[in-house]
């Protein structure tokens, strides 16, 4: 069997993308496993509506965490789209990212079980902050020291993408700081964060127009 091809320019990114898809698929599937079907005796069937209602914290945690994982998957996919090669450091940065993503089912189960506990909220927010920070680190390394991006990529795209990545961690940091004051506000902020990424921004304009097209100056404030 011939060894994998490696050039002086670096190594391929295909294995990183394959591992990413597998990690995200497993993590997103594990989220629903914390939502258990109520176990009722035959004479307790009339309690089913109330027991289902009691599941709302876990269900909310599942939906929000699933969307957040989706946001990070899209962000990671977008980051790798313009990476023309990989290297050892970049691969280990991805391993660190996958480590944090793999912990989301645990932190999501924790906040689903103890939604009013500041400690649970801080663990959850800390998990999501780390995911965003590591993803941002990948972007900066690929665009800077690693020189892994296309040479003609617009530098303003990198700046814009970096700001977009850090929006989530900024919201989660505020949510974490408010956990002791108002847990419900923290939960609302966590739920609102992924909605920010559903709104189009200048990064979407870059994709739409093609990566050789520069971002308009006035779009940088959006």
Automatic annotation (TrEMBL):
It comes from the Bacteria. GO terms for molecular function: potassium channel activity; proton channel activity. Its main location: membrane. It is found in: Membrane. The keyword Oxidoreductase does not apply. Keywords: Ion channel, Ion transport, Membrane, Potassium, Potassium channel, Potassium transport, Transmembrane, Transmembrane helix, Transport. One of its GO terms (cellular component) is membrane. The chain crosses the membrane at residues 20-39, 59-80, 92-114, 120-139, 170-199. It catalyses: K(+)(in) = K(+)(out). The keyword Transmembrane helix applies. It is a multi-pass membrane protein. It holds the Pfam family TMEM175. Belongs to the TMEM175 family. PANTHER family: ENDOSOMAL/LYSOSOMAL POTASSIUM CHANNEL TMEM175, ENDOSOMAL_LYSOSOMAL PROTON CHANNEL TMEM175. This is DUF1211 domain-containing protein.
């Amino acid at each position: 069997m011939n060894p994998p091809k490696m050039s002086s320019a670096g190594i391929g990114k295909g294995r990183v993308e394959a591992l990413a898809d597998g990690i995200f698929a497993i993590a997103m599937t594990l989220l629903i496993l914390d939502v258990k079907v109520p176990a009722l005796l035959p004479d307790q069937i009339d309690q089913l509506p109330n027991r289902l209602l009691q599941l709302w914290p876990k269900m909310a945690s599942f939906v929000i965490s699933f969307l957040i994982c989706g946001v990070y998957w899209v962000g990671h996919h977008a980051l790798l789209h313009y990476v023309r090669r990989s290297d050892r450091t970049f691969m280990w940065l991805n391993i660190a990212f996958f480590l944090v993503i793999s912990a989301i089912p645990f932190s999501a189960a924790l906040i689903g079980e103890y939604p009013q506990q500041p400690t649970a909220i801080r663990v959850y927010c800390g998990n999501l902050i780390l995911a965003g920070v590591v993803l941002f680190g990948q972007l900066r390394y690929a665009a800077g020291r690693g020189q892994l991006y296309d040479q003609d990529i617009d530098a303003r795209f990198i700046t814009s993408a970096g700001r977009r990545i850090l929006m989530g961690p900024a919201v989660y940091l505020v949510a974490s700081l408010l956990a002791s004051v108002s847990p419900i506000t923290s939960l609302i902020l966590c739920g609102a964060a992924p909605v920010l990424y559903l709104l189009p921004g200048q990064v979407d304009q870059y994709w739409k127009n093609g990566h050789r097209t520069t971002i308009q100056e006035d779009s940088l404030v959006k």
